[in-house]
Specification:
This protein has 254 residues and is mainly α. Helices cover 63% and strands 0% of the residues. The protein is built from eleven helices and no strands. Residues 1-184 form the Ras-GAP domain.
């Protein structure tokens, strides 16, 4: 309920200001190659070769990932795709971390309470394990959907009748997946060199993510933030009013 609140109109400006400019710039540029699956890259290469030459390739169309990587052209294309994917992911990640101060206070305070409560209940848990759970709230639940479908959360300004192209959605989905893996320090399974390169990037970005999440949780208590104490209400002429729907009330007590 909290995440939905901060993704609604009342908290939408934070997402728009944080992610909007970076995603807009990415989508205005020609879509680079970011496909890193060896078989997919191999088949694309074969199809392009046949289209350019007008003749059928002598190479087999169905191959394993290991066999596909034996071809220098496939490896070259994957290397380029990995560089592109890392650069694009880094750009969005920098947009997130450089706008820490724009995140809603309520979301940040909830992340702090979540971390402290887990630390109290599970004192044996490592700091890395605690921040993985905090990252699930802050990144995966709050930011990830807006990166995958920015038009659905009005993070991007789109003209009437326009929509994102399939290759643009694929690009955003790949960036979101990389950031999701980095937030959770989830490495890609396998021993291929291309996977090891991505895994090193994920591990490095995870350390930066943890530093960012530490900053997310570094917020004052509400009474300090709003300069209030137990006597503040007595001095207020117009008493505060809380607006809550029936569904929100029901969800609160579930």
């Amino acid at each position: 309920m909290l995440v939905n609140f901060y993704r609604s109109a009342r908290g939408q400006s934070a997402l728009k200001e944080t992610l909007g400019p970076a995603l807009h710039d990415l989508l205005q540029e020609p879509a680079p190659s970011i496909r890193t699956d060896p078989v997919d890259v191999y088949k694309t290469w074969i199809n392009q070769t046949e289209s350019n030459t007008g003749t059928r390739s002598s190479l087999p169309y169905e191959v394993s990932a290991a066999d596909a990587l034996l071809h220098p052209e496939v490896q070259r294309r994957i290397d380029i795709a990995i560089i592109n994917l890392k650069n694009l992911t880094e750009r969005v990640f920098k947009a997130i971390t450089s706008n820490l101060h724009k995140l809603p206070y309520g979301l940040r305070y909830t992340a702090k309470v979540l971390r402290d409560s887990l630390q109290e209940k599970f004192p044996e848990a490592s700091e890395d394990e605690l921040y993985k759970i905090v990252g699930n709230l802050v990144y995966y639940r709050y930011m990830n959907p807006a990166i995958v479908a920015p038009d659905g959360f009005e993070v991007l300004q789109r003209s009437a009748g326009s929509s994102l192209q399939p290759e643009q959605r694929h690009l955003l989905g790949c960036i979101a997946r990389m950031l999701q893996h980095a937030a959770a320090n989830k490495l890609f399974p396998g021993e291929g060199d291309h996977l090891q390169t991505l895994n090193r990037f994920i591990s490095q970005t995870h350390l930066k993510f943890r530093k960012f999440l530490h900053g997310v949780c570094d917020v004052p208590e509400p009474e300090d933030r709003f300069n209030m104490d137990e006597f503040s209400e007595l001095l207020i002429v117009n008493k505060p009013v809380v607006y809550i729907s029936v569904s929100e009330l029901r969800n609160t007590h579930q």
